[in-house]
TrEMBL record:
Protein name as catalogued: Inositol-1-monophosphatase
Entries under CDD domains matching the protein: IMPase (cd01639)
Listed Gene3D superfamilies: 3.40.190.80, Fructose-1,6-Bisphosphatase, subunit A, domain 1 (3.30.540.10)
Pathway membership: Polyol metabolism; myo-inositol biosynthesis; myo-inositol from D-glucose 6-phosphate: step 2/2
Cofactor(s) needed: Mg(2+)
InterPro entries: IMPase, Inositol_monoP_metal-BS, Inositol_monoPase_Li-sen, Inositol_monophosphatase-like, Inositol_monophosphatase_CS
Reaction(s) the record says it catalyses: a myo-inositol phosphate + H2O = myo-inositol + phosphate
GO terms of molecular function: inositol monophosphate 1-phosphatase activity; metal ion binding
Organism: Gouania willdenowi (Blunt-snouted clingfish)
Length: 267
């Protein structure tokens, strides 16, 4: 059993995870808490906005389609970092983004154990617990701390792509490569200036939608891992402190070898 106390200024509750089940791989976990948090969020939002649509990680795992339309849409990851949650590794977040006409209007990432609430609204800046955020502004890739994720895939091609990308970055060299176990919190480190870049191939829109607007509103840059325009449904992202760093990472990171049939969102 895993449990984590979630706090905000308004409420305090204990999340109990009684059952851990596997999804797409032996490292892709889901608990009752993931499902309960998603249900709680969707039902509360639906009561107020009955016409709005939802893309939620656990609803998709239960068979719902992943379709981003022009309608107002809430993109929800009820627990980003479920493996951390199960093991009590202290980086676990709730990630919520809201889009209209496929454009993100605001994003919220609540890093529960740290009690850090990141949020950003389009054109209105990014904040951590109410204080404005700003990226590091670093432009020299050799001075960067880069965050990525190991991911849940365990097949040979995915593993060799992931490890060789990390090796290529370390050989540049960059000053550090880190992985916290939650893409949402990883990307928020770029927004704080604590890290200079984040990249990953294989995250879903619910992992990165909220933190993308947080990085952008903190003055950062977001692009596809091939250097093209970012598409939150493509499962490829670089978030960086500057265009120079983002382009530097795009030149190093290779995705093609294993994206194949993997390039759309499925839970
Ligand atoms: O815990 P989740 O929501 O599956 O997300 C993981 C994706 O590997 C970390 O971002
Ligand atoms: Mg996630
Ligand atoms: Mg999740």
């Amino acid at each position: 059993n895993a449990h984590i106390i979630c706090r905000t200024r308004d409420f305090c509750f204990v999340l109990n995870s009684k059952e851990v089940r596997l999804k797409s791989s032996p490292a892709d976990l889901v608990t009752e808490t993931d499902q309960q948090v998603e249900k709680m969020l969707i039902s509360a939002i639906r009561r107020k906005y009955p016409q709005h649509r939802f893309i939620g990680e656990e609803s998709v795992a239960a068979g719902e389609a992943v379709e981003l339309t022009d309608s107002p849409t809430w993109i929800i990851d009820p627990i980003d970092g479920t493996v951390n949650f199960v093991h009590r590794f202290p980086f676990v977040a709730v990630s919520i983004a809201f889009t209209v006409n496929k454009q993100t209007e605001f994003g919220i990432v609540y890093s529960c154990v740290e009690d850090k609430l990141f949020h950003a609204q389009r054109g209105r800046g990014a904040y951590l617990n109410g204080k404005p955020l700003c990226v590091s502004g670093q432009t020299d890739i050799h001075r960067c701390v880069v965050v990525t994720e190991i991911g849940a895939e365990r097949d040979d091609l995915a593993l060799s792509t992931m490890t060789s990308n990390i090796c290529r970055l370390l050989r540049l060299p960059v000053q550090g490569v880190r992985a916290l176990g939650t893409a949402a919190v990883d990307m928020c480190q770029v927004a704080t200036g604590g890290a200079d870049a984040y990249y990953h191939i294989g995250m879903h829109c619910w992992d990165i939608a909220a933190s993308t607007i947080i990085v952008l509103e903190a003055g950062g840059v977001v692009m596809d891992t091939d250097g093209s325009e970012f598409d939150m449904m493509s499962r490829k992202v670089i978030a960086a402190s500057s265009s120079a760093v983002a382009n530097g990472i795009a030149q190093v990171v290779q995705a093609d070898s294993f994206l194949g049939d993997f390039s759309r969102n499925r839970a």
